[in-house]
Amino acid sequence: MTQTMNPLSPAANNSDAGVDVAALGELLLGKWADVRLAARALAGNPELHKIEGLTHTEHRKRVFQQLGILVQQNGVHRAFPTRLGGSDDHGGNVAGFEELVIADPSLQIKGGVQWGLFGSAVLHLGNQEHQDKWLPGIMNLDIPGSFAMTEIGHGSDVASIATTATYDASSQEFVINTPFAAAWKEYIGNAAVDGIAAVVFAQLITKGVNHGVHAFYVDLRDPKTKEFLPGIQGRDDNIKGGLNGIDNGRLAFDNVHIPRTNLLNRYGDVAPDGSYSSPIASPGRRFFTMLGTLVQGRVSLNGAAVAASKVALKIAIQYATERRQFNAASDTEEVVLLDYQRHQRRLLPLLATTYAAAFAHEDLLVKFNDVFSGAHDTDEDRQDLETLAAAYKSLTTWHALETLQECREACGGAGFMAENRFTSLRADLDVYATFEGDNTVLLQLVAKRLLADYSKEFRNLDFGVLARFVAGAAADLTLNKTGLRQVAQFVSDTGSAQKSAKALKDAGTQHQMLADRVQTMVAEVAGALKEAAKQPKDKGAQIFNDHQNDLIEAARAHAELLQWESFTAALGRISDPGTKRVMTRLRDLFGLSLIEKHLDWYLMNGRISMLRARTLAPYINRVLSKLRPHALDLVDAFGYGPEHLRATIATGIERERQDEARDYYRKLRASSDGPIDEKILIQRAKTAAKK
Amino acid sequence: MTQTMNPLSPAANNSDAGVDVAALGELLLGKWADVRLAARALAGNPELHKIEGLTHTEHRKRVFQQLGILVQQNGVHRAFPTRLGGSDDHGGNVAGFEELVIADPSLQIKGGVQWGLFGSAVLHLGNQEHQDKWLPGIMNLDIPGSFAMTEIGHGSDVASIATTATYDASSQEFVINTPFAAAWKEYIGNAAVDGIAAVVFAQLITKGVNHGVHAFYVDLRDPKTKEFLPGIQGRDDNIKGGLNGIDNGRLAFDNVHIPRTNLLNRYGDVAPDGSYSSPIASPGRRFFTMLGTLVQGRVSLNGAAVAASKVALKIAIQYATERRQFNAASDTEEVVLLDYQRHQRRLLPLLATTYAAAFAHEDLLVKFNDVFSGAHDTDEDRQDLETLAAAYKSLTTWHALETLQECREACGGAGFMAENRFTSLRADLDVYATFEGDNTVLLQLVAKRLLADYSKEFRNLDFGVLARFVAGAAADLTLNKTGLRQVAQFVSDTGSAQKSAKALKDAGTQHQMLADRVQTMVAEVAGALKEAAKQPKDKGAQIFNDHQNDLIEAARAHAELLQWESFTAALGRISDPGTKRVMTRLRDLFGLSLIEKHLDWYLMNGRISMLRARTLAPYINRVLSKLRPHALDLVDAFGYGPEHLRATIATGIERERQDEARDYYRKLRASSDGPIDEKILIQRAKTAAKK
């Protein structure tokens, strides 16, 4: 429990019971607490830490060696089959994996390429023979490999990749080709230096038919000489904005022959005579099923982004409780940064969002484990999982970048020093916003799903009900347009400001407002797009494009609602009353900040009155000052030690310096040696003149 | 003139006359066009370019050598006196200096430390003797030096720095001391390696009186051995988030004796006997006058942030007109990124803001030159200049970071490659948001000025008018609170959506809305703070703190209004009708985007009706699609060549790749060899079954 004197708002200090930091920490560790703690112990090992200022070649070498340490320490095999030395634990695997980001994001992502993408593709897309043949070498790093999906010309639109794998029945081989420059595989981890094999995604062509994207196991380099095998070319991507411990590069294939059996054939196979077969008849569904097995990449990026946000907030909030600047409240005492309203405004809503993202991630991880363990593995489960992963990954990776930047700026020049972590983490996490699916594209996938659910609901209703629903929606709109609802609400709001703020504090009200917004936005877009479906493709696309921004915003609103629900559900798992009170307030801050962020929508759609809207910001400011005394507890509950934070300004050094400075001035004032201030002399002279 | 086929919005293509790129380019070059062009020619020199991936020690060496090239090329002496080889050209000096950011921001800032801070301090705070003694060596780099103002414990609060310079009349020397750890000079450029001298800011103490912060010329290192002189200690700041070509470090002083005459004594002097004198009686005013001479740092950061934003937008928009992704509108043609509504939403408002910032910067530069040339150099001119510089520097440096990040994400994985500039520029410019005054602190300075102007207005009015004003304001508020004004506006809005959007297109309406918001916000804060002035300091500070966020937002609103005014004034300098039409639309986009950003405020303060507010986003979308065909012209007018852009994706390579890919598929479709898509086979089978 932390109680800090706040000269700017003394009343806020003593009003609350404190937080049970240990219990809250347990709650955050979640279902895979043991794995997470083991992974954190591993991530505390200095041999795994990022060293700032290495050249990219040195950094690459270091990270490759670190992968070996992960293998030795059994840190990365949880998802693989028990028969091969793994433990078939999918949720635990991701929980452990994502914690590695705090050692070095390059290490996390390089490990992700090797085991999460390359190894997972063999595991999920291959048969048992493939697994037995290649997984042991992949697991122990004898086969460093690449996941060659993205091409220069096609990133998030995987279905349109142009690499071909054409079956030659005479030799019973596939022939891999890169038909033009835009089809080069690009940004491929392990491609520039280390990879001796790859899972290559290509259009499978046999007997003159293109069966769409499939995955092929392809040897890239001679394991001894590390020279490319015949027909394979590469280019080093060189320096990137971050993650420079990974050797990204390009790959191209010129008539590269591989055995027929190198097709990872779980969802589609070619017989020796060239005839194609698949357990999934629809090429579209087959494609999405194959890609769906790779959802764990998005899940683990989500978790890593949460972890990085936690580290950043712990560092920045620790510093903000020690650092003093400007003597606003007294002639001799400077104010601690976190006592400034603006500083609270900058950091505490990010803290609330980080908690929301953390609880939502835990729920996502459980869902992921349910699907991949086979416990709940229907088509709908998988679709839910993919939608959730896409929604959360977008919001959380952007949130991490915002948090890292705000923390860096909130720490001033100290925040810019590499030794304080923010800039380095931010540079590395930057690409999380566009890889494993560009966030903007992912949100459109989420929106598509929302629209599909919306029209499914229509399909289950008879036409009369549908007609009524539409009429109701129109009436609703009319009501808002005339401003009647707003005026009505306004009339009921004319009590004290306190009263109208109180209504927004109610969880039911928050939920209703957030949910209403999602439903209304989806319904509005759906209404506008009904036309699009009837039009020729180009006209339809134009109508769709005219609502692209609305669609993306609806998806974001949906994801925010789900995060709010996860946060609220987590409150039910807290038993300590003090903790529950503070955490409920933090959830309120999250909900209210969302409403404030979208306040224009609520106002122009008649969902909130002008008067009530005007009470929101001052009310949020009061919530902030009530949370202020618990800020340090709330970041301590993240459970990261000095070996994870590794930031000079999080060591208490600032408090020591501030204390030393205050002692110096205190002694100076007490002694007769100290110089007197010219301003005071002038003041005295003025006073004397008046007398 | 660029006309691009847009399959998603074909109607938008032919409606506008084009932009006269060359004339618009001239306008942007502004008053110091020749200097700017010369500086760009210099910045195009490969010897001055940043090389990615150097270690910080290599980068530091390279940048120090580059400073020598700047000296040889006469690129950096424009502000210095003609008698010493300069040209007394302050505006031109900054115009040229800020363009160096496109070569390497480290070069710009290291040059800024040497000539803009260290040299400027000697120039503006010293006497002619000081200038003649030190400036030649500073100008030709014989004396690399530091500007030692910031301390670990005090960044933006310069008045509170703790380093002391105590006069010893017996030896006629000042004795410089660092009394505790927090008083170490920190983040000081040239301190870690190169600096052999420094201007050190310290509390001047003589005869037992502290006369506040003054500047002292102090030798740091032996020029030959580069060893610190006795009593001086340093520490290397090592790796930073960016600007690693600069050797930032810490400095501490232990009884370092310097001659009395090393006090830069323009605004305050100590006679041999220790008696203090100053041409400015008030210690507060003296302090602000001294610091005010250093305003050019903020001015030039503002210009550099504009330049970096221009480079980023040229690269990202070039790429967005070539890159294709997803075949939304046809089965065979993929859509160019910039034809997507969301992509327009991401990039074009940033483009509009960059133009606004560019025009505002030009006006600032003229103001700066007026003051420093002595043409308009009253106290009020200086205050205006400082307020403007603080306001613009905050908005523009944040804008540059936002622009660089949005451009990087809009280019996907390619945006993350260092060779495409975004990540590197962003890392370097990150610290612009907190150095030369933390943006958050600077906005509070702006707000203080707004409040002072507000109460000055009160001082000039008699009490009756004051009373009326307050009553009027209260009545105004009541009107809004009852929603009457809104309902009234709403009633007049009930025409077509077109009609209500049209009103917002009017420049007068935009101006009125932006100005009204500033006035209202300032008046509201002023009303709330009236209490604060009457209270004891701690209570007053608490009231002030409760409105800190509102204050900062009022300052931001003020700066946005000024940018809008600069943009609008610039329209008057355009004669070509096509250019004027497009640029007016871009100004509208800027104004409307500001109103959209603050739409919650306009709604809850009854300044816009719900109905009109709902037409805003669709109207902005229409403006975007009308600007879309001119986007490339608008970035081409920035006038940066390949030697400045140095980004692979801005070379046209993407168009070549896309063309090659489309040719390949076109030929494949035309030939009988191409594989047929499984989906088409299934479609055919279904059709056949139906027959």
From TrEMBL, chains A, B:
Domain Acyl-CoA oxidase C-terminal: 512-650
EC number(s) from the headed UniProt entry: 1.3.3.6
Cofactors, names only: FAD
Cellular location(s): Peroxisome
Keyword Oxidoreductase: yes
Domain Acyl-CoA oxidase/dehydrogenase middle, chain residue ranges per copy: 146-256
GO BP terms, alphabetized: fatty acid beta-oxidation using acyl-CoA oxidase; lipid homeostasis
Keyword terms, alphabetized: FAD, Fatty acid metabolism, Flavoprotein, Lipid metabolism, Oxidoreductase, Peroxisome
Name by which UniProt lists this protein: acyl-CoA oxidase
Organism: Arthrobacter psychrochitiniphilus
